[in-house]
Amino acid sequence: MTSTPATSPAGIEHRPEEHQAWEIGRGVHGDPFSVLGRFGVEGGAIVRVYRPGAHSATVIDGAGKELATLEPFGPESFFSGYVPGLDGTAPYRIRYSHGGGAGWDEEDPYRFGPILGDQDVYLIAEGSHYRLYEKLGAHPATMDGTPGVAFAVWAPNARRVSVVGHFNSWDGRRSVMRKRHECGVWELFVPHLGRGEVYKFEVIGPDGNIQPLKADPVGFLQETAPSTASIVDGLVEHEWKDDEFRSQSAEWQNREKPISIYEVHLGSWRRGPDNAVLDYDDLAGELVAYVKDMGFTHVEFLPVSEHPFYGSWGYQPIGLYAPSSRWGSPEAFARLVDALHQEGIGVLLDWVPGHFPTDVHGLVRFDGTAIYEHPDPRRGFHKDWNTLIYDYGRPQVRNFLVANGMYWLDQFHIDGLRVDAVASMLYLDYSRNHGEWEPNIYGGRENLEAIAFLKDANERIGEYFPRATTHAEESTAFPDVSKPTYAGGLGFHFKWNMGWMHDTLHYMQEDPVNRRYHHHHMTFGMVYAYSENFVLPLSHDEVVYGKGSLLGKMPGDDWQKFANLRAYFGFMWSHPGKKLLFMGGEFGQWAEWNHDQSLDWHLLDQPNHAGVQRLVRDLNTMYREIPALHQLDCDPAGFEWVDTANVEESVIAFLRKDRGGRQVLIVSNFTPIPRHGYRVGVSKSGTWTERLNTDAEIYGGSNVGNMGGKTAEDESVHGRPYSISLTLPPLATVVMVHEG
Q: Is 230 left (phi over 0), alpha (psi -120 to 50) or beta?
């Protein structure tokens, strides 16, 4: 079809080139703002609109007065015309009608200016926009006095990007976005939308093919699985009441402070009647009260970022910027964090910048090319998890991830990030056979780009959020993980001590009669204890995939299982290193963790389980109150072996010390045989009082112990001038505090 060009009464041509109109009609024009909207000319403006389903279009002013009727041109529902007197700033709307005469008024989204400022464009292009979440995503906003939503998404190689939803009948021709070529971001202000609007992005790749509809990578709320659309929500709105807490939280960067972490999966910690999931507000009551009562200093949430597969526990996230809607709104999650803070409890969040799933609505080939994932499968695909690995060498991807970590610290007042699967990021040959990986530029196996990303993330977090801490789940001997970047380290504050966990659990699973052959598993951790700032983790990973619960791992009959677990907890809480315990372990759950149901809280009706819970509560109290048990966790001056040689009787004894020279003696008997008159060397005279005994009757033990304390005698043992004669209970740890 060929149309005869028309002119306005003023002699001004208002029609575009015909091929442009047809490209708009087919939804393939990549620069709609060059065709649609208002174009100022002498005496007025040219206005062009495209509205599928409309049979006529009239421009009206802010008062509803009709200014000019636009002419149809090219494809059906494309209109163009000259509007006299319409200057470049005056508001206008379009009055459309169907063929039957019914009409409606709409704002013209193409009359609004750019969303990103010049500085935003520059920083995004450079990969250094650390408040990216304030610009990308979907933000309720007002432009030129008109309320609506500002959408912006990074898709540098796309030919065309549209925002689609119920508001435009999911028609990708109607809300085509403006491309900011300098930084690869597409943007559009859609008038008269608000919070709660469901949307996705329709992307045409560089090959001209339409991609599967994409959720917003910087969306702040998503539909509940199995639905996958993003929901307009904007940045969280919450009136925080944690100023006093936050003014003190920087103390947790001090390695001398007690840190005892309760690791929680929000969907299965506790459930309501009929297995109903508790939401964030329910948890703000029940979980907060429980953690405070148990004496933990922190909770650590398994990832709350939106994830399509519930069985991934959040470790395969799609919506990195969206708290999972399974448990409520972002505002409700903020209320949960605030409630914890008001009770003096810090909040750590598992963060997953190492990989993402291949769900088609996610980041995979987002603009028709590999922009988030590394394009080389040798570096961009995880064989173990069937997930994709971020391209850490691309500045905009690093920016996306670093800004995401900072988003949680900023918008939700999170106190620290535990970074998942760091080892998988550090090594190019992680879980790969020979020939399946490519060496770095120096011929080594280290992923230099991932290392640079981790350092950058830790430096930026330290710069912008100096109170926050970062924790690495790193399972290899990679050096200096928890050393500052200026000293050549990765910049984390703490590292999980996976070696200690594996060694000690291996020992505890042995029958006591065989422990003499594995004594070194309980002592080897001190060989490298001060190479990093360690957290001792008994995490969720140790109670899934057929590994059984902590209690279930213990050998012997039921009495011995409980006694072994109590002795192990006593050893752990006294050992150098911060503490982490996954939910359910604190009361000796029998069953392996099941993310589809509540913990077995009914077990607390049984004395043995209630006793383990009481022990953990008392261990937390003791750990916080006695500086010798935490002050020098990361300093060899705070620890001294007393007896590691008694392999035959499986007894271990050591001292913990504080900066003032005060001492605590810990003795563990890992056999079921009580030992009376067991002499242990000490370096200080005076009285040593039993502060805690895991065999106490209140914990479910046999109540063998050292009532009234012990006085040091002038009898040299273990190379020390004094000694005390102790009763060592069966399968127990005793803590003796020097009272001098």
A: beta
**What single DSSP character describes residue 490?**
-
What single DSSP character describes residue 276? P
Amino acid identity of residue 112, one-letter, is F
17 included as an active-site residue:
no
DSSP string over 335-367: HHHHHHHHTT-EEEEEE--S-B---TTTTTTTT
CA distance 428 to 437: 6
Instruction: Give residue 12's pLDDT.
Output: 82
Q: Quote the pLDDT of residue 1.
A: 35
Q: Which of 187, 202, 420, 658 is catalytic?
A: 420
**Cβ distance 503 to 525 under 8 Å?**
yes
* Tokens of residue 65, six digits: 């007065």
pLDDT value at residue 87: 85
This prediction has a pTM of: 0.95
739 is catalytic: no
Q: Are strands 663-669 and 732-738 parallel, antiparallel or unpaired?
A: antiparallel
User: Which of 107, 197, 367, 473 is an active site residue?
Assistant: 473
The rounded distance, in Å, linking the Cα atoms of 543 and 553 is 9
pLDDT in tens, 299-326: 999 999 999 999 999 999 999 999 999 9
Strand partners, 734: 667, 693
Distance CA 176, CA 516 (A): 72
**For residue 384, what are the CA distances in angstroms to 152, 375, 389, 424, 432?**
34, 18, 12, 10, 9
3-state SS, 32-61, equals HHHCCEEEEECCEEEEEEECCCCCEEEEEE
Place of tokens 């001038």: 721
Handedness of CA 631, 290, 734, 574 (dihedral sign): negative
Stretch 174-186: mean pLDDT, rounded?
Answer: 97
Q: Which of 417, 430, 415, 416 is nearest to 475 (CA)?
A: 430
Q: How buried is residue 221: exposed, middle or buried, by Cβ count under 10 Å (0-12/13-18/19+)? A: buried
DSSP 667: E
Question: Which 3 state secondary structure label does DSSP give 528?
Answer: coil
pLDDT of amino acid 5? 41
Q: Are 608 and 557 in contact (CB under 8 A)?
A: no
Report the DSSP beta bridge partners of residue 657. Answer: 663
Angstrom distance (rounded) from CA 669 to CA 701: 14
Give Cβ neighbours of residue 558 (< 8 Å, ≥ 6 apart).
608
Is residue 6 scored above 60 in pLDDT?
A: no
Phi, psi of 198 (to 5 degrees): -90, 140
Rounded to a whole number of angstroms, the distance between the first and last alpha carbons of the chain is 101
Task: Please report the pLDDT score of residue 99 as a whole number.
Answer: 77
Q: Which helix (H) or strand (E) element contains residue 620? A: helix 607-625
Q: Which residue has the tokens 């109607």?
A: 174
Write a three-state SS string for 221-261. Answer: CECCCCCCCEECCCCCCCCCCCHHHHHHHHHHHCCCCCCEE
Report yes or no: 368 and 207 within 8 Å, Cβ to Cβ: yes
Measuring CA to CA, how many Å separate 685 from each of 382, 657, 676?
59, 15, 21
Q: 3-class DSSP state for residue 71?
A: strand
The span from the CA of 731 to the CA of 459, in Å, is 45
Rounded to whole angstroms, how far apart are CA atoms 172 and 162? 5
75-99 confidence digits (pLDDT tens): 999 999 999 999 888 899 999 998 7
